[in-house]
Prior knowledge:
Helix content is 47%, strand content 17%. By secondary structure, it is α+β, with helices and mostly antiparallel strands. The chain has 2 domains: 1-118, Beta Polymerase, domain 2 (2-Layer Sandwich); 119-201. Strand 8 (110-112) and strand 9 form a beta hairpin. Helix 5 packs across helix 8 (166-179), helix 6 packs across helix 8 and helix 8 (166-179) packs antiparallel against helix 9. The longest helix is centred in the C-terminal third of the chain and has 17 residues, at 184-200. The mean pLDDT is 88.
Amino acid sequence: xxxxxxxxxxxxxxxxxxxxxxxxxxxxxxxxxxxxxxxxxxxxxxxxxxxxxxxxxxxxxxxxxxxxxxxxxxxxxxxxxxxxxxxxxxxxxxxxxxxxxxxxxxxxxxxxxxxxxxxxxxxxxxxxxxxxxxxxxxxxxxxxxxxxxxxxxxxxxxxxxxxxxxxxxxxxxxxxxxxxxxxxxxxxxxxxxxxxxxxxx
Length: 201
């Protein structure tokens, strides 16, 4: 599948691999801290309709069939194409689902062995923002991420503490609190910040 993803960005940046598989790729492409996140579904994020159409056409040429924005191939798995175009409101845009809040993932893209992925911390912050809306499905990914890189948790909490949006800061902290249900020290640190936020409201 990663060869297909390389082709999607062969001549220009068209999409970013997001979700657990972007972390798969970051970790499996290096020689250290290799850890695969079990999933057969690949999500790619395009900046606009034009890029999404180009990706869709490439996938069809490679033998993928699609229902809407979901492309399937028996050998490689499934790819969902999303859009993050901040010029348009959230909703369906030319048969693709547009999610402007995902724009930061596109903006922080980096290329890892020919595949575009978002900055790891921006991806984790995004997962924390929406984890409670998707029944906590992203909690496991966040836990694995910090199990692999435990030295990042305190600087990460401080980064959230300095986040400009109070509403998003609160949402991320509540999700992070749920992720660390077995770590009393981290939970106490988060509780202190949440108390400050709630007392200032």
